[in-house]
Amino acid sequence: MDITHSFWERTLLSYASHHIQHMQKALEQMNIKLNEVINDITGVTGMKIIRAIISGERNPVKLASMRDVHCKNSETTIAKALEGTWRPEHIFALRQAVELYDFYKKQIIACETEIQHHLESFEDRSNGRPLEGPRRRSHRSSNQFHFDVRGYLYRITGVDVTRIEGIEASTALNIIGEIGIDMSPWPTVKHFTSWLGLCPGSKITGGKVLSSKTKPSANRAAHAFRLAAYSLQRSKSAIGAFLRRKKAQKGAPKAITATAHKIARIFYNMLKHGTEYVDLGQEYYEQRYQDRVIANLKRKAKQFGFELVTIEENKLLTELPVS
Predict the structure, then answer these.
(1) CA distances for 149 relative to 145, 155, 172, 302, angstroms
(2) Predicted local confidence at residue 320, as pLDDT
(3) Residue 122 scores a pLDDT above 70
(4) Of the candidate ranges 164-168, 205-209, 223-227, 267-271, the one whose mean pLDDT is the lowest
(5) Contacting residues for 47 by C-beta, under 8 A, at least 6 apart
(6) How far apart, in whole angstroms, are the C-alpha atoms of residue 34 and residue 159?
(7) In this structure, are residues 190 and 264 in contact, taking their beta carbons and an 8 Å threshold?
(8) CA-based torsion, 285, 289, 295, 298: positive or negative
(9) Looking at residue 136, what is its pLDDT?
(10) pTM of the model
(11) How far apart are CA 317 and CA 320, in angstroms?
(12) Which of 191, 137, 147, 189 is nearest to 168 (CA)?
């Protein structure tokens, strides 16, 4: 898959974000605290208010009345945040920032349309199987695509990679835009994770391991896998439990890399073999981990001539009558 369109779309998003910062700066200079009372100034409420300010409205109550019904804060709270000083130079700066933001939003939509046309050119590998509903609710984002990215990815890959915890549709598109949908360049999953720079290093001399650090990499797919891993800090999934255990053992940076490595392996196997991913949950993972720890303890105890028993088993043994 050609990564040019996807990369350019991310570049345009970066440019647009600069002008959002310019809007915030102009509002702050006017003592307008809009970003403190709404989550996103480029959302419905924020842009209505900003465009009204540019058009000449100065009454905080009238501006606050433009609040969307889904906005958490009341009109009274928003009105208090809109009592500013309306200096013309700051209004001018705000107007230019909005015009530039609008321009880049139009360019982003044009780029997304081109990406959509490019995805339509791929062969349908879904074999007519319907795409199931999303396993989890995704948070609405102002950077969300205007077309069904998840549906297109399922069509060209034959699997729903967004079922992997941490992999949203946009993340999957970025990864596939970088690696493509043909996994034949990597004969095994080890080749794939080594190419990504996510597998442990192997600096060995004289049979002694000098370092197992992962090699530095500017791979955009690896970066996407790391972001996916980072998003699982509070996830109740098996991968989320894995991340937290590794974080307790080795610290956050190594835990994120190890989790990104795990997600990349799942991603590879889904594309390579067409297997579906099913998350068994945090409890299943914790039970499996506990079983492995107990099995290792029993093996070590046996090596030293001991037998490991549970408290309940020990209690039953002590209660048996002595013959």
Answers:
(1) 7, 10, 9, 55
(2) 58
(3) yes
(4) 205-209
(5) 41
(6) 42
(7) no
(8) negative
(9) 59
(10) 0.73
(11) 5
(12) 137
